[in-house]
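Q: I have three molecules that I believe assemble together. Could you output structure tokens for the complex as a whole instead of separate predictions?
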Amino acid sequence: MSEGIGARVLRKEDKRFITGKGRYTDDIIEANQAYAAFVRSPHAHARIVSLDTSAALAMEGVETVLTGPELVADGIGNIICGWGITSKDGTPMNMGAWSALATEKVRYVGDAVAIVVADSKSQAQLAAEAVVVTYEELPVVVGSVEALAPNAPKIHDNAPGNVIFDWEIGDLAPTDAALASAAHVTEMEITNNRLAPNPMEPRSAIATFNEAEDHYTLYTTSQNPHVARLVLSAFYNVAPEHKLRVIAPDVGGGFGSKIYIYPEEIACLWASMKSGRSVKWTSDRTEAFLTDAQGRDHVTTAKIGFDNEGKIVGLKVNTKANLGAYMSLFSSAVPTYLYATLLSGQYDIANIYCDVQAVYTNTVPVDAYRGAGRPEACYVVERIMETAAREMGMDPAELRAKNFVRSFPHQTPVIMAYDSGDFDANLKQAQAAADVSGFAARKAEAASRGKLRGMGYSNYIEACGIAPSAAVGSLGAGVGLWESAEVRVNPVGTIEILTGSHSHGQGHETTFAQIVAERFDLPTENIQIVHGDTDKVQFGMGTYGSRSGAVGMSAIVKAMDKVEAKVKKIAAHVLEAGEDDIVIEGGAVKVAGTDKQMLWHEVGLAAYTAHNIPEGMEPGLKESAFYDPTNFTFPAGCYICEVEVDPETGVTEVVQFVASDDFGTIINPMIVEGQVHGGIAQGIGQAMLENVVYDAAGQQLSASYMDYAMPRADDLPNYSVHHASTTCPGNPLGMKGCGEAGAIGSPPAVINAITDAIGNNNLSMPATPSAVWAALQDVSQKLAAE
Amino acid sequence: MYETNFHKVATAQEAAALLNTSEDGKILAGGQTLIPTMKQRLANPTDVIDLSGAADLSGITIAGDQITIGAMTPHAEVAGHAGLAALCPSICKLAANIGDPAVRHRGTIGGSLANNDPAADYPAAALALNARIHTTSREIAADDFFEGMFTTALEEDEIITAVSFTAPAKGGYGKFPNPASRYAMAGVFVAKSAEGSVRVAVTGASEDGVYRHDALEAALSTDWSASAVDGVEISSDGLLSDLHGNAEYRANLIKVMAKRALG
Amino acid sequence: MKITMTVNGKSVSRDVAGNTLLVDYIRDHLRLTGTHVGCDTSQCGACVVHLDGKAMKSCTMLAASAEGASVTTVEGLATSKDDLHPMQIAFKENHGLQCGFCTPGMIMTATDMVARYQAAGKTLTEDDIRHELEGNICRCTGYHNIVKSISDGASKMTSA
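A: Yes, here they are, computed for all three components at once.
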């Protein structure tokens, strides 16, 4: 039917957003609400010598001022990283203590040292400025390589040499041997620039402690309210789990940065209990730059070997991952199991070895940002493949195709078992859409206008639909990564779907309704999605890692299976037919081949009146399910980027961007295309514009949109988006996930295109006009020298 | 934002009087710089004196080749003024690329000149067009007005009322926007008067704010062409280096933008 | 101080402090929360409203400066709850929004843009739209469908 799987159904959620009726956290005002402001460290590394709140406490409108030692005294626990990584030598990772309000030391600019609660925002801000903190400044280190140097400043006492872990995957000796025997070896240093996620809605929280009921409510900008409730209760001891309701209402984008539970939410809940007021805090953009977990920041050396046929014999990678001042919730998983496990790319590689040193620095904590580890892996693999092709004088697409994995399942040397894919199909589709054969003519035409035109490929693969619980548990995850759903058919036949997934732009209210509409042949307007409230929805794991389709929808399918079975039982009973003869179609439940039927809502009513249901059957029509994935899913594709560089200024224009993706089954092509557009935009942003820059003192030089270049409409092209799909065998709908692919696949395509255009492969992200211009000067100097 | 006393005035004289009597008053023109600065708590005026009600400060008048732009004229009006476009299209083009449409509806030429942001566009135009800055107490030549970044010849209680200049025979503006802020990383305004004298002003690039580029003026006086610009060695001494580009890059941009300003 | 202005066609008066931003007045005093704040440097455009018919950033204006003015917010764009503005319809039909946070500002910028181009008798090309969106940042859509929405909205506004 027209609203089922594969239909371009317009979004059910849109009306409230286009009319200004969305309800985001900051839009909510609680009775007796006060406002919080945080006193933050202006230093990247310092000892707190003294802290005097007396002047602030005496100011007009100030309810309370609370500090780290009081927080610790109240038994509020340290913020944790939920994924344990074991080093090469068998030792566990070195997790430094992170108190929501600093006690003895501050470790990055923005580290919170006190919370001020006052009647108004401006009173809270004024009072925060009146808190007197005396610091003893300590030496600062901001880069991962510098942090590993012998005499680097020590950030956490329990992390000698600032090393959090020194982890490895794959087999070293065979990889070294393969590289030693290779006919050609390409070696590169590759950096992956640090990014600020920048969802347009800044983080916000409103915490309310109801003393009479001994109960807490937290409205917050979260991608996973249940996980927030779990850690707030089980680890941070803010409130018992059954006494805490977490609501994530409309959330304005996340991209990973709203997975984590930050100091501010903890402090607001605690301050509400201490003050008896509802406590609201909303980040401004500067605070977001200073406190939202950032992304990427890898420094890598990679070596790849080929035999004389151009077949890859081995890949060896070393990565230094900067995790910032503290370990955020999933930070340790990003440069390990979400990164090195994807280093095989789309290629059949027998030998891979990677080791990763994760380090502390005096910078904002780093955690998962759209793609999380996989963009870093893709960038390493696709930059080095392109470079190797250039060095060997081969067509970059041919070199890739020569090494494609073509039989599935395929076990890589780095854990992942690819279940499906057709990489040739994506390559060919992208090449056709990009008119690769016409490139030479376009390049010549551009040259006649004084422009340098270049083309670059990226054949990405990623792992999402995170992930089988037992598997991630064995790798150190502290949680299971299943998803839950409840399907409630009401007595009038309308349906509510309660899902543990959370939509913050992904359009779940529409796509989730579509799979139900398809299954029960009902209009989507009769289906309501309920999410984001721990009091309404059963425990769920939330939305990140492109998991809401492959995992979240699978849970709904599983619950629908149960509903369908019960519906058929009831109908068979009422219509006096065999269950196997019952079909559901056109808003009715029918006996196939007869005119006997019950309307859909009549089955609902029958279930709830329970006047005439099979003997022994429980009344009602409501089923729940927990779905644990059987494997990761493996979206893959081919991206081809074409750029034109203005050699006078280094300005680069993306003139064509083609994507051919394999996402498995697509529920709503309109929404999937939108996800790809947004992902590519963030990837182009990383490749050409965005960069978090710290000075040597640990001050962020790029802490506003004046200096952090957010991609704007005139920076970006239209995208040519195509699909060549293989069905994912691992889940009932055959879905793979589409949320992160664009951000994962696009950066190497862009850099490969620019380096092709300028004839200099030595170019780092972001390829800003000045960086491209400098790279062009190197080329002309080299030419002059020759 | 800190607390402040708000005043809306009907004339520049009224505003000047208030400036004189307030402890630390600030003029609010379009506010596109002052308000963000106050929000970031970097400015803390005791009094904010809003000129948006001073109707006689806004508007463009043209008399022969003499152009006068009222201080409170928003960028959008300059950008879209047909009479101005006929006489001096370069300043319309410049105004059309300041900030974004919403900023251009609110931001004013007087505010931009008084603030003298080292990356703002209007100072380059004023300097290259040899403009006269009219204030509540006098008239100041552009050469005497700009005194380094965020510094002007304005006295504490002096307010810009208008800017006037003679339409150039030829003129143009080349701007290279900062990829993040979209302010000028290098903006070059070139102007040739009816008498043939050439003035070239550079904004965005220097540690000292807007300045005239002697070498470019000399070259273009002899030969008003891109090839003349090519022959000029642009020194990077005193140019800004930051995360968006170093001094060498800015020196290159000055040359390229000068050529593009020639059209 | 007491200020009076017309908001979405209704005259409203409130007592505010002199340093109250127009956006805070709209959100906190009038409780019209469709106008958003996404940055503190006047760049993201989530706060765009129309002041006397022109798009302006309400985060970069004092409420008191709008004394006597007519303000339209996204809530005031539709003529009735069932009769959406053509630009609102275009954003829905072209999937011009995802998380929805930048959307009110985008729509207010878009309607201003189209009105200006139509008044000047100019056609609005894709390049024009992209340039005109310089002051509105979206992190979700990559702008592709926003550009499409505005182009479609412009046609719809012509035929409306």
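A: One point stands out. The first helix of chain A runs from residue 14 to 18.
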